[in-house]
Give the backbone structure.
Amino acid sequence: MQPQWILACDIDDTLTGDRVALDQLTQQLTQLRQQGQLFLILPTARAVPDVVSGFEDEGLPVPDAISTQVGTEIYLPPFDGDLTPLPAWERHLRRNFSRQEAMSFLEGIDGLVMQSDKYNTQFKVSCFLDKTPDPDAAADLIQQRVDDANAGDTYRVIWSSTRFLDIVPTEAGKGNAIKFVVDHFDLASRPVYVAGDSGNDRTMFDEFGQGIVVGNAQPELKRLKNESPGPDIYFAQNCCAAAVLEGLRHFGLLN
Ligand SMILES: [Mg+2]
């Protein structure tokens, strides 16, 4: 039996932040997966070991697929041993992305700090902008440089939480990674619901147009309320996993 619906749920500050609610959500999602009704994807900015350790340490639900590093890597079960990203997705991203060129868009920005090597991977250049004099202006400048170079077909700039800036291949991002997984499992006819809290979740809402913005979301995601005020995006009152529970009940997906 094919799953009836798909949930793509960000981890940090969407699932995490309220352990009691997360335990309740995990229990319900796990049951739905075991009944074959739900296909669960966890798209995240984390690296994969920090997702896998979270199953036990943080009570995260075990999913059917994980997309890490802001949609630049995809992992399928089993989630143990040596985890290798899905080669088909890496091939899809390989076209023109150059770390060197991506780095050139960051040059000379006062106060910019590169993130650790763990988050600077083959297909992702990541820095912090919160020590720059005006983080939003710095993010705009980086986007402007990409636009001025006519490089938007190759580089996607993702700005989250007035702190994290990522440059990834335009084909990447959480929304595209989820779509790839959905097509990979031949689930394109099933409805996809997404849930998130920050700018790096935006591509999921743009791709699928249906989901939950948690009550503790960052301003750049809450802005969706003005840009896409439709019934298919639910702005929860609650925060974190309690918001996901609230939203899934709103859509009639949970009791
Ligand atoms: Mg998050």
Summary: The chain has a mean pLDDT of 96.
